[in-house]
TrEMBL record, chain A:
This is Small ribosomal subunit protein uS2m. The keyword Glycosyltransferase does not apply. The gene is EOG090X0B5N. One of its GO terms (cellular component) is mitochondrial inner membrane. One of its GO terms (molecular function) is structural constituent of ribosome. CDD domains: RPS2 (cd01425). HAMAP family: Ribosomal_uS2_B. Gene3D superfamilies: Glucose-6-phosphate isomerase like protein, domain 1 (3.40.50.10490). Keywords: Mitochondrion, Ribonucleoprotein, Ribosomal protein. Required for mitoribosome formation and stability, and mitochondrial translation. GO terms for biological process: translation. It is found in: Mitochondrion.
Automatic annotation (TrEMBL), chain B:
Gene3D superfamilies: 3.30.230.10. Belongs to the universal ribosomal protein uS9 family. The keyword Membrane does not apply. Keywords: Ribonucleoprotein, Ribosomal protein. The keyword Repeat does not apply. It holds the Pfam family Ribosomal_S9. This is 28S ribosomal protein S9, mitochondrial. Residues 376-395 are annotated as: Disordered. It comes from the Eukaryota. InterPro entries: Ribosomal_Su5_D2-typ_SF, Ribosomal_uS9, Ribsml_uS5_D2-typ_fold_subgr.
Amino acid sequence: MEYEAAVKGPLKLKGTANKDIQKKLKKKNKEKNAASLKVDQLADIKESELKEISDPLKFPDYFGVRKLFRIKDLFDARIHYGHKDGTLDPNMKPYIFGSRLGHLIFDLDKTAEMLQDALNFTAHIAYRGGIILFVSHCPQHTLTVENAAKQAGEYAHAREWDFHIFTNSEKVYNGVTRLPDLVILLSTLNPQMQEHTAVKDAAKMCIPTIGIVDSNSNPNLITYPIPGNDDSPAAVQLYCNLFRDAILLGKSKKPVEVY
Amino acid sequence: MAVLRELVVFPSKCFRGVRSYFFSAPLFQNGSLKLNESVSKDGHALDFEQSDTKKMSKAMKSYMERAKIHDNFIKQQLHEYNIGKRHLANMMGKDPEFFTQTDVDEAIRYLFPSGLFDPRARPMMKHPDEIYPKRKAAEFDVNGRPYHSLFYTSKPNYYTLMHDLAVKFKQLDRHEDKIISRGIQNQKPTELFLFGSEWIPKQKIENVLLESLTDAQYVNLIKTFERFSQHPYSVIEKDFIMQFRRQLAAQVEIQQVPELMRDESGRPYMTYNARRKTSNATVKVIGQGTGVISINETDIHFFQREQDKKQIIFPLQFSDMLGKVDVVATVDGCGTSAQSGAIRLGISMCLRSFVNAETIERMRLAGLLSFDPRTRERKKPGQAGARKKFTWKKR
């Protein structure tokens, strides 16, 4: 049923199912648009009033990231394919729909919801000029990830991970450097099937992470896990496109206050 | 190497360096509300620098300090170098205005003679830019955001190169697909000819990329290049590949064959002093001859043994000059075998001037033009001879 609804139209967030709330949102958006970007007008309005009108955090989906994908897109990109029964990490059980012929299948409804949260978060970070780092260790997807980061105007590390990048950054970069404000992991495992060091290190440095967790990965240390397939090139391409679009959406809105 | 620098795709912002922040402060780009910070109570605009440093990130601040220190250091070194050059010129009695780097090197070699083997260990006085390694320009802007997309890999230039290789690989694949789809199957692409050149060493690549690489990373890069150059259509990217190859020195030095000399009667001749073991032979081969051989003013029968006579005749026979040239040789020292060997080498070396390049090459391959370095091996103490040991007794 939910799949049918998604096919008919864009997936709506639970909070905005109510028509009244939608009307209020439309009104707010109108007000926000009217109040933007003319210096003379801005000078008349008080700063505090402006904040209230156009604080992006007051909206559930300020940048409209839910329009970026449908569940059908996830299905076509084979995001619902997990690994085999025996490799299931117990922490991933809630996100698995079941298994078919020994292969685990993800529940795309849950994936879609969590993906929306993650994209929304990404857009907000980009809006505030945060540094976003795409991380992946799979050599097959290096080019895809690096290209997506370049197009989004953000950063990528799709190569062999140096252990001291976050924790001993002064030594590695020859001086004080600004660390990323968000780490997006296209795969939380390295080629040796162990947890990627970035997961632990980002948690140590209090950097929020978004991670695509496959059925054999542990989502516990990741701030916004997205259960789904991380091995197919089509799946990785879709994720990269979605994150890139979310970042560009976030950057397209001009911030009222510069941070 | 300047060519190689252009190769790596640096975004132009990388080299804007410290001064970039003066001209592109994002604070003043959009219509922000922070106008009250930029305009003082009098209505005059505040000092640009002052308002900017307030919002500058910690990273940028620390970079600025380091850059300042480095710039001052280089300035100081340059000043010292210029003053030192003038002092040197005065010491050597030359004009300080026209004292070049070669003059400086000569002066240093004269004033500080060094017996050290490695030229890099000897005293030198060079421009600071040649001695102190160049620094990478400011890698991030006012807000601490790096310019390069791969900054967090800590080796952005190296990984950009790897990235570009992958991109080019895909382009070649697409090109191949196009040609196959057009059905031009018989058309074989011209092969990339890499003979006579080798991949540039790790040090050179490090100098180009301004980054240090581990051995594994260098090996990985070369392997990638190898794979890339093995693509059937890699000829398209020949220029790109050849920028990472250097020509090998010719393995066989082309020896200069001496020109024929003329004697009083006008006959061409050539002389050579040849050695074999401890015997010396002075051989003169005279053209327009009838095959007269004279050794120490006697016939070829100077040598009693068949083997020695054959040695003398072999080079003439091989190069087909048996009845066409005369040989006059004087030889002394050692024994018959060594003497005949010396004369043989002498004749071969002289014949080079009489024959064409192909024959010279054939003679070289036959071993006629190689000096025989074998000498008698010394006797060692504790042994009966050079190799012979005394009788081994079990007990």
